[in-house]
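User: Hi! I have a protein structure encoded as tokens and I'd like to know what sequence might fold into it. I'm fairly new to this, so please keep things simple.
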């Protein structure tokens, strides 16, 4: 179980002349700091999105066969579970235990998603939880929607992200030979699993044109999966309610949960990051929790961790914002605009947490 509370960290200053001790509770957001734009990344994302939009046009106008449609959806799903179940709930937070075969499958699916190697993905996410919504958070939501959604990948990392990221405990992943193998050979594995195979199958088996297959099965699928993950960093940190802990920036978002197979119940997840459900409920817009339970049934996953009902209840009563679908108060829920499916989907545009000390 990962710690998320304040913890003392130390890092080497940029000038290498002295050591400074940084208290996590004192790391906030310096709104005067200007991130440096990395223009090659900007250009890369523009090109990526142009091809993805081209693929979307082909996808919605019937430019591919029915079997390619099915294949694209299937590959997108595998990649999504590789991120939600694999990178997030297992390798980052260790919310359950997995057999070697399960680990290999999840690593393969995460490589298919193409969102960097498992080691770096988990390091960045552990850093995000340790210093959530501060300058030490890679995608600090207090920098605005665009920055925390995708802009953080177009800017040079804040010095805190670089230095404190080196102190994140990654010994469990360093001891996993599969993770380190993927890290070492990530780029050839990415070319094979994320680009070549998704494109080749429709061409070879379904008679699809290779260019259409590339645009739809790689570019469109890849960009869609990226934005799904990014929605957790942006929407699920800015627009919603905080029924479990009003002191945490993350919120509950049914929309993000639909797009990401259950990752949008983010206020709960930051309150109980070691819970395999990443939500209070496993059977409500939370397919990844169902998938983990399936892995348990077939013997690939075991020792699923979860917060007890008593623990959740105490947290709601002690720190919740009053919007909980069952335990909240009527006045607070009445002030929330509920859109979409029924409980617990209250969604609102509550203002972000108040800035402290002008920072």
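Assistant: Happy to help. Inverse folding works backwards from shape to sequence: for each of the 359 positions I chose a residue that suits the local structure. Here it is:
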């Amino acid at each position: 179980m990962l710690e998320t509370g304040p913890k003392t960290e130390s890092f080497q200053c940029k000038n290498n002349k002295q050591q400074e001790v940084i208290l996590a509770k004192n790391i906030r957001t310096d709104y005067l700091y200007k991130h440096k734009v990395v223009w090659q990344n900007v250009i890369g994302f523009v090109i990526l999105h142009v091809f993805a939009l081209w693929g979307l046009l082909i996808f919605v106008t019937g430019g591919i066969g029915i079997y390619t449609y099915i294949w694209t959806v299937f590959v997108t799903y595998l990649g999504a579970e590789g991120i939600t179940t694999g990178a997030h709930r297992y390798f980052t937070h260790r919310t359950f235990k997995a057999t070697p075969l399960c680990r290999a499958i999840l690593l393969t699916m995460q490589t298919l998603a193409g969102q960097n190697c498992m080691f770096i993905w988990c390091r960045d996410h552990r850093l995000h939880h340790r210093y959530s919504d501060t300058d030490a958070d890679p995608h600090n939501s207090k920098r605005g929607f665009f920055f925390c959604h995708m802009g953080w990948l177009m800017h040079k990392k804040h010095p805190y992200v670089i230095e404190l990221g080196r102190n994140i405990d990654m010994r469990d992943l360093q001891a996993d030979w599969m993770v380190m193998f993927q890290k070492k050979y990530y780029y050839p594995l990415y070319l094979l699993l994320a680009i070549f195979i998704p494109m080749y199958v429709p061409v070879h088996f379904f008679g699809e044109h290779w260019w259409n297959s590339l645009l739809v099965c790689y570019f469109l699928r890849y960009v869609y999966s990226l934005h799904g993950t990014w929605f957790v960093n942006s929407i699920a940190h800015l627009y919603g309610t905080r029924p479990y802990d009003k002191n945490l920036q993350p919120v509950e978002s049914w929309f993000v949960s639909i797009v990401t197979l259950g990752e949008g119940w983010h206020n709960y997840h930051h309150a109980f990051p070691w819970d395999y459900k990443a939500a209070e409920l496993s059977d409500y817009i939370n397919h990844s929790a169902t998938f983990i339970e399936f892995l348990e049934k077939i013997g690939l996953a075991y020792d699923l961790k979860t917060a007890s009902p008593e623990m959740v209840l105490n947290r709601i009563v002690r720190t919740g914002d009053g919007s909980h679908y069952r335990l909240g108060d009527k006045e607070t829920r009445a002030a929330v605009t509920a859109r979409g499916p029924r409980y617990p989907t209250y969604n609102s545009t509550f203002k972000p947490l108040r800035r402290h000390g002008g920072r």
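A useful reference point when you look it over: The longest strand covers residues 8-12. Feel free to ask if any position seems puzzling.
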